[in-house]
Write a structure and sequence with these properties.
It is built from four helices and nine strands, in the order βαβαβββββαββα. It is α+β, with helices and mostly antiparallel strands and about 160 residues long.
C-alpha cells in the first residue's frame, strides 16, 4: 500500500489567524509584506488568544530608528489584575531584522509609502503581525478593482452554470 500524498497548503498549519484588516486591501495597493513579532504584556497576549483585537485603524510608524504599531485595539483582559494593560490602543514595538527595519523606514520617508497592518496571527503561541508597505489607491483605482472582481465573479458563475 502506497503512502497518501499530503496536499501542500500555502499556510503554515501552526498559524492561527486571529484578525485580518480587509480595509487595507481596499484602500491601499499592497507592495511588500513583512512578518514581525510584537512586544506585549501578559494580559494582551491572553486577549489576543481570545480574539479580542481590532486592526482596522492600525498603522506602523518610525520612532528613533524603531518601528511601532499604532491604533491597534487589543481589549482589556477581564480576568487580569490591576497590573494588566490599561490602554488598549497603546503603541507596541515591532520586532524585525535590522535590514527590514531600514528598508521600511526608507520606504516610509523617501518614497512616502504607508506601512499598514494586514493580519495578526498566532504561531507556536507567539503573536505575529503581517505588515505591508503600501501606496494609497485613488477613487478610480478602487472602482476599477470592483469592476474586475465583478467581471471575474460573472465568468465563474457562467462557467459553473454551464
Amino acid at each position: 500500500m502506497g503512502k497518501k500524498k499530503k496536499k501542500e497548503s500555502t499556510q503554515d498549519p501552526n498559524n492561527r489567524i486571529i484578525s485580518r484588516n480587509r480595509r487595507a486591501t481596499h484602500d491601499f495597493e499592497l507592495l511588500e509584506t513583512y512578518q514581525a513579532g510584537l512586544v506585549l504584556m501578559g494580559s494582551e497576549i491572553k486577549s489576543i488568544r481570545a480574539g479580542k483585537v481590532n486592526l482596522s485603524d492600525g498603522f506602523v510608524q518610525e520612532n528613533n530608528g524603531e518601528l511601532f504599531l499604532y491604533n491597534v485595539h487589543i481589549s482589556e483582559y477581564e480576568q487580569s489584575s490591576y497590573f494588566g494593560h490599561q490602554d488598549p490602543t497603546r503603541p507596541r514595538k515591532l520586532l524585525l531584522h535590522k535590514r527590514e527595519i531600514a528598508k521600511i523606514i526608507t520606504d516610509i520617508r523617501e518614497i512616502s509609502y504607508t506601512a499598514v497592518v494586514t493580519k495578526l496571527y498566532l504561531t507556536r503561541g507567539l503573536a505575529k503581525v503581517e505588515i505591508a508597505t503600501a501606496r494609497g489607491k485613488k477613487r478610480h483605482d478602487k472602482r476599477q478593482d470592483l469592476r474586475k472582481r465583478d467581471a471575474q465573479r460573472q465568468i465563474e458563475r457562467a462557467l459553473r452554470d454551464r
